[in-house]
Amino acid sequence: MNPLNFTLAQIEAFACVCETGTLTHAARRLKKDRSTVSELIEYLEIDLGYALFDRSTRPLRLTEAGELLWRQSRLFLHEAQAFAQVARHITGQLSARLTLCYDLFTPRDFLLRVQRELAQHQIRLEPILCERAEAEAWIEEGLADAGLFQALNRTINDRLQWRAVGSISLAVYACAGFFPAGAVSQFHLASRTQLIPFRTLPNWLTQRLQIADDVLRTNDVQMLREMLCAGNGWAFLPEHMHAETWPGVVRVDTGMGDSALSQTLVALWKPGQTGQPALAQLLATFVQTWPAAD
Questions:
Q1: What is the pTM of this model?
Q2: Maximum CA pair distance of the chain?
Q3: pLDDT reading at 21 higher than 80
Q4: Are 176 and 249 in contact (CB under 8 A)?
Q5: pLDDT-based confidence at 262, cuts 50/70/90?
Q6: How many structural domains compose the chain?
């Protein structure tokens, strides 16, 4: 593509002189000095290599070449005006994109409400289900923007920053008849197969969530549901998953107390990133949107 040797201001001045008939009237409409409009026309003619106006007449009369270019100039200016209109509104049409990692324990209705709230700020949220170790690596590498996971009760140092979002309550679930009637003791839990809804667990979380020696792992919600319904084991699950509504599954009374069955969720992100408006909005939305609705 050959470079343009003329400017929008030159074409605008040319078209305005064509319409008004004089440099003085064109200057008044364009809110420019008459000499400025005259120079714009002269430089345009120099760049083109031919005259656009017959200056021996009053009002100015277009040359044959000028007649042809006048029609083109109007089309060009219409396109320029359309371009300016789009440009003025483009900031409202652009949207940021954030990738948020989360695990099976994260409330889905909470994520959906966060997603809807961010959409009001032209921020699109990509929720990615994965485990925390994988998410931390992605955040450090810049492949994800933030994570929402169970707190590990440890210092993350300078690798990642964190902020508490809220807590979730857990309960024991199993298919009806999996345990004897009445309150189930920790001995009964330890003696039966436990379903672990994670591929891997850090040691401290293993100590908190794993009671049985015999475990079956799956980090797929549908598979977990089918295994629980089939009586393949019992599981600690967040109450917000409403596992008691799954076919044949009941909530088990353990007598352990609610304080032992709660987990804090924390937001994770890379240090120095909170200056980004989209990420700052995400963190603010976490606080505004929690707690999760039933």
A1: 0.64
A2: 110
A3: yes
A4: yes
A5: confident
A6: 2
pLDDT at position 156 over 60: no
| Tokens representing residue 78 in the block | 């219409």
Q: Are 111 and 39 spatial neighbours (Cβ–Cβ below 8 Å)?
A: no
What is the rounded CA–CA span in Å between residue 268 and residue 103?
A: 13
Q: What is the mean pLDDT of residues 188-194?
A: 94
Across the strands, what pairs with 153?
none
Residue where a domain stops, chosen among 53, 68, 92: 92
CA-to-CA distance for 104 and 65, rounded, in angstroms?
Answer: 72
pLDDT digits 0-9 by tens, 42-65? 999 898 889 999 888 777 889 988
Pick the last residue of a domain from 92, 107, 130. 92
CATH number at residue 103: 3.40.190.290
Rounded CA-CA distance 252/234 in Å is 9
> 3-state class of 91 per DSSP?
helix
Place of tokens 């000499």: 35
